[in-house]
Specification:
The chain contains 14 helices and 20 strands. By secondary structure, the protein is an alpha/beta fold. The strands form 5 sheets. A 6-stranded parallel beta sheet has the order 2-1-3-4-5-6, with helices on both faces. The protein is globular, with a radius of gyration of 23 Å.
């Protein structure tokens, strides 16, 4: 085919996918392609997929149809987790021309010249996942505010509900030196915040084996990585995207508490507050350990934001089990939840477990925890009204308004008033909006805290 000149990307799923999409985009740019918006009509569409839930699978099909509506003659390439798990199924989607697996997606340019719009199934290049054994570094760059930096990939855990090991392969990490070099490159682009991403970033350097005593330490561990990153000039903030509770050590918690660059913000997957479900999920901790991790974080960082992943409707989860999880989370000093409705994934042990929960019941439990999440978030925001905290300003979809997040992940909005996008400003947290999802900052920008500042009365819903 004639070499296309424009490319457009659509990313589904996690921050790790966004980092990889951005790196693939730089490959296209280096080959002379111009990236255009999804609705502008590109010569090539690259769809980076997720397969955590059935929704992500259906979303992939919808995005393919949308791409072809914008550009009927475009070449459509599908990569990512769904592409590795179900390549033949994706290749059968009308309009898909190429499907690349986990080991092939970073060689995408090698396949572009061979594409054709011949009728029938698309071309599949997806080997066994064990072939994805090399670490490919990646980071996102777009709005010049934050970047997602990939430090680890794959997973050696065997959680019964998860397809990630099948989609991404074994756990593997970048080197500390390479990550630091990536961070310096990101800093040179003017980015102020880096979010460290991976499938199981606490396992950086095979930390699980070291902690469990299976093997002696061979590589630098996650704590060594974040210590090195803390010395990188030009980056104002680092965030840890998600870390398993059994890998969130006292050493890591203490380091973040003392660091000037690592944000007081942890996202720690729980999945269930019931030990019966945790055992059935083959999670590597019990709820008592999780509660200890939260208590330890709050003891050294009372202002720290803690996010939690939880799954509802896992096979065998009775109403009593769910309520035990609900009460456990209700009592935890955490800040918000990401609630996932369990969906059966092919070739996982959980898919064959008995006592499936009815879908309507799964949705009801999801709603209950989602409401609890909003209550937790509101309480966390209220706790910090009247304080001054550093905010990284970003563009807002609303004219005359800027938005941003504090170091401890409180969402803030304010009048533009000369505030500079991609700058960090110390501001007073004044009023919680009635919906409870945003703290409002009014008046002129404040660079120095005012000792007389006091919070205004919070509107109640």
């Amino acid at each position: 085919m004639a070499t296309p000149k424009t490319v457009s990307f659509y990313t589904l799923g996690c921050k790790l996918n966004y980092s990889e999409t951005s790196s693939i985009g730089r490959q296209f740019e280096g080959a002379g392609f111009a990236e255009v918006g999804f609705e502008q009509g590109a010569d090539v569409y690259v769809i980076n997929t997720c397969s955590v839930t059935d929704f992500a699978d259906r979303k992939c099909r919808n995005i393919v149809r949308q791409a072809l509506r914008h550009s009927p003659n475009a070449y459509v390439v599908v990569v990512g987790c769904y592409a590795q798990l179900k390549p033949e199924e994706i290749a059968s989607i009308p309009g898909v021309d190429l499907v690349l697996g986990a080991a092939e997606k970073f060689h995408i340019l090698d396949y572009i010249e061979d594409l054709s719009k011949a009728p029938g199934k698309g071309m599949v290049r997806a080997g066994e996942v064990r072939q994805a054994k090399d670490f490919v570094h990646a980071f996102s760059f777009g709005d010049r505010t934050r970047s997602f930096l990939k430090v680890q990939d794959g997973c050696d855990y065997k959680c019964t509900f998860c397809t990630i090991p099948q989609a991404r392969g074994q756990s593997r990490s970048n080197t500390v030196e390479s990550v630091v070099n990536d961070a310096r490159s990101i800093a040179a682009m003017g980015v102020k915040e880096i979010v460290l991403t991976g499938v199981n970033i606490g396992d950086f350097g095979n930390g699980t084996e070291v902690i469990e005593g299976a093997k002696p330490k061979k590589e630098a561990l996650f704590i060594d990585l974040i210590r090195a990153l803390d010395e990188v000039e030009g980056i104002e903030r680092f965030r840890i995207s998600s870390i398993e509770p059994n890998l969130c050590t006292d050493e890591i918690i203490s380091f973040v508490a003392e660091s000037q660059r690592f944000a007081p913000h942890f996202h720690i997957p729980l999945q269930s507050g019931n030990n019966k479900q945790l055992a059935q999920m083959r999670r590597r901790y019990r709820r008592e350990l999780y509660a200890e991790r939260v208590a330890q974080i709050k003891s050294v960082m009372p202002h720290c934001c803690i996010g939690v992943d939880v799954i509802v409707g896992f096979p065998g989860e009775t109403e009593e089990d769910f309520l035990e999880t609900y009460r456990f989370i209700q009592e935890l000093d955490i800040s918000y939840l990401h609630v996932f409705t369990y969906s059966e994934r092919a070739n996982t042990p959980a898919a064959d477990m008995p006592d499936a929960v009815l879908m309507d019941e799964r949705k009801r439990r999801n709603k209950m925890l989602s409401i609890l999440s909003e209550k937790k978030r509101r309480a966390f925001y209220e706790q910090h009204l009247g304080e001054y905290r550093p905010v990284l300003w970003e563009h807002s979809q609303q004219e005359g308004i800027v938005t941003g997040f504090t170091d401890n992940y409180i969402k803030v909005e304010a009048p533009e008033n000369g505030r500079l996008i991609n700058s960090i400003e110390m501001v007073g947290l004044e009023t919680l909006e009635p919906e409870g999802g945003v703290v409002w900052v009014s008046g002129e920008p404040r660079q120095v805290p005012n000792e007389n500042f006091a919070p205004v009365e919070v509107n109640q819903v």
